[in-house]
Amino acid sequence: MSSKQAEEELPPRPAYPIPDFGPTGKLEPYYGSYETGVPIAIDLGRSTTRFGLVKESDPNNVFPTLISRFKDRRVNKMVTLVGNEMFLDTISKSNIRSAFDGPMINNWDVIEKVLDYGFLHSGVSSQGRVDNPVVMNEVLATPLQQRAGMMELLFEGFEIPKVAFGTDCLFSYYQNGGSTGLVIGTGHDATHVIPVVDQKPVLSIAKRIDWGGRQATNYLMDFIGLKYPYFPTRITPFQMEKIKQDYCYVSKDYGTEVSNYLSLDNLEKNDIVLEAPFTEIIKHQKTEEELQIEAERKRDQIKKLHEQARERRLEKLVQKEADFTYYTNLKDRMKSMNKREQIDILRTEGFDDEADMNKYIGNLEKSLKKARNEDIGENTSDEPPSFPLIDVPDEQLTEEQIKEKRKQRLMKANHDARIRAKQEKELAQKEAEAAAEKDRKRRETDLSGWIAERREKLEKLTQNVKERKRLKEELTDRKSRAAQNRMKNIASLADEDRGSGRRKKAGNVTIDNDPNDTFGANDDDWAVYRDIARGEDDDAEEEEQQEILKIEEELLEFDPDFTVEDTLQRQYDWRNSLIHRFLRGPRNFDPEDQHQQHQIHINVERIRIPEIMFQPSIAGVDQAGIVELSEDTLLRRLPGETGFSGDDSNEMMKDVFVTGGQSLFQNFQERLETDLRAVLPVGSLLKVRRAQDPLLDAWRGMAKWSVSEHSKNSYISRQEYAEYGAEYMKENNMGWVKL
Amino acid sequence: MSSVEEVSDALNGPLVFRPPGYKAPKRRHRFLRQIINDEAKRVQLKQQQAHDPTLITYQSLAAPPSLKPIKTYCDITGLPTNYKSPHNQLRYYDKECYDIVKHMAPGVDQQYLALRSANVVLK
């Protein structure tokens, strides 16, 4: 009772909208004060490109690295849109393509367009070439084919004077003034752990985890897809990414938090309801009058059906009674006959022997009793109708009257059957009343005994229900014992049927005119199917449910120890269902509610998704997580490397630096610090810091580096490229790896 | 003229900074797997010619497998668990989850397993 009140007190959960579209379209600004010779920094990210002349403190253009190319039917020409401008048009959204397959460029035409676009918006006005040095990022130790492709495009397609490559997280570290530290760069496609000593990255022990923002979004998308397989609207990757950014966070203590995540208290705090946009269908409300007419019609139909069924039952009953009298008379008659005559009669009647006949009569009697108990019409008048012609011999009657007599005979049989049925019913009722009275007396004298009895009965019934469920399950497995038994039963039944030439009148012949096959002539024959059915006895199940409910009611009334919580229904309560809480949050679910149909609940996912960085095994990535990698780098790999010692490690712990999009998850730094502190030696001076701007600092670092002393001798000119090819590089401490 | 057309024309029209004679070479569309395989072959060849133990490659940067015991979680709900269904190798948290795991539509179990790369891949 108290829980019911509590339910009413709880307010509905707030539902946040899933954004209708992805990003909104906007026009990309053009850069106004272009100058030749000023380096252009390009952070060509797997998700976002940042592009701009390094004179400025921030990139002039930041846009998604995507293009959309399609034929515009309105003007009948090919249209190409890049970055944010794709979202200006609705058609373009379905034609989006990316330049990348995972972390690798596989569509160079897209890259070319993106660079075109970037240079155009940077206001490049030099004739026939881009007269600016370029600083660009690349995947750490990218395959040579990738670098060669990019160099070819830049030097030949744009004729830039010189270029330098590097890795974004190292540029970001440079921007944030790092000197010795452990750089953890989380990107769109991979996460890097790179130790840096005196501004030099120790790339020989740098490591990469193949998990980034893209994989996280995909994982969330697949997970939600499996969680709500019949969700009516499609959630796009853009929407999913937004959901991930807005609602996922790093758990400070994953083990404890996740175990408790689906408790009602925690869900009250942390369950997020998201609703997809939809147009509500308003159902036609029927008026009172219409409803009434409909109900009337339904009642009439039901009445008619009842009537018909009753008629049929009655006819059958009469037939059975006639059979019964016939066979009992026969039996009586047979008593006075000799053996031979008896056998003859039995043969003509289609019985094997006398026992067979007795059995048949017994069965008939049983089914008669049962049929009488069924409702065969109570509403006949009490006064017996008169059948005057019945006792008159046929010889005294006319043709017409004989017909009438036959009719009356049938009616009389009908009437008699009815009266007998009524009597039997009354008797049964009396018996039931007596039993109830006895039960009441027993309850009053021996309450504990009565309760024990009821409980035992309830136990047995629930056991039955369970047993049936188990059987049903077992039967789905062809090899299970239950299924094997069933097959055996079927086989033996088939055998039996063939063995004994069945009895019954020769007139009962089946469709294929086989006089031996009389299956179905008797209604009880069909019970065979009941025995070998797949445990799906709906009637019996229903009966049991009713019985359970009845006993529970009684126990609730008289047993002080039996509460609402103990009832079977209560045990199926949604509050107790983990799956319900997982799918529908801390409220009941109304499948008819259109809002609820369009809602998803984000709960465990909120911490599960970011956790994969710490435990890649969750997503089946067979690599160590960032903490284990950092620990290994700091405590084992770096001291083991020639030229380095534990002192370098100690120095490095003081500056663990995180950058990149995934570091924006709430609590990321705190979690990293707690976990690292747990594995590092006691007293280590550990400090974890995040880039000032984890997204833009890579570009800023490129800009800063491109005009610094460090960069002076680190560019490769067009001549050098022409002379030595793409394999030629210059060490720049920014992750330009010799391939 | 719509703004969409305008921005498209600006990009597709002649760009002053593009060298007039440049024609993009015909490039083969390569998938990630091909790119990685080609790179591995190149590195192998290079190492055969002149062995260089300090060479850093895309493959050599990949993080090693974890040496710590792996924590297991329910595939349906994500809660920590040690149970695993013998039918389809799915992990489940409790009886209720097991009911779902047991009566999963064909193929769905593989989709769940694919989330942690434990699905059966036919080659």
Automatic annotation (TrEMBL), chain A:
Q: Where is this region: Disordered?
A: 1-21, 424-444, 496-523
Alphabetical list of Gene3D superfamilies matching this protein: 3.30.420.40, Actin, Chain A, domain 4
Domain of life of the organism in this record?
Eukaryota
Q: Which InterPro entries match?
A: Actin (IPR004000), ATPase_NBD (IPR043129)
Return the Basic and acidic residues bias intervals. Answer: 1-11
Which parts form a coiled-coil structure per UniProt? 281-315
Q: Which UniProt keywords apply?
A: Coiled coil
SUPFAM superfamilies named among the record's database cross-references = Actin-like ATPase domain (SSF53067)
Report the family membership. Answer: Belongs to the actin family.
This protein is called what? Actin-related protein 5
TrEMBL record, chain B:
Major localisation: nucleus
Q: Which GO terms describe its biological process?
A: chromatin remodeling
Q: Which UniProt keywords apply?
A: Nucleus, Transcription, Transcription regulation
Spell out the Pfam families in the cross-references: YL1_C (PF08265)
**Domain of life of the native organism:** Eukaryota
Could you name the Gene Ontology cellular component terms for this entry? Ino80 complex
Ranges of residues in domain Vps72/YL1 C-terminal: 72-101
| Localisation per UniProt entry | Nucleus
Known InterPro entries for this protein? INO80C/Ies6, Vps72/YL1_C
The name this protein carries in UniProt is: Vps72/YL1 C-terminal domain-containing protein
Q: Which lineage do the record's taxonomy fields give for this organism?
A: Eukaryota, Fungi, Dikarya, Ascomycota, Saccharomycotina
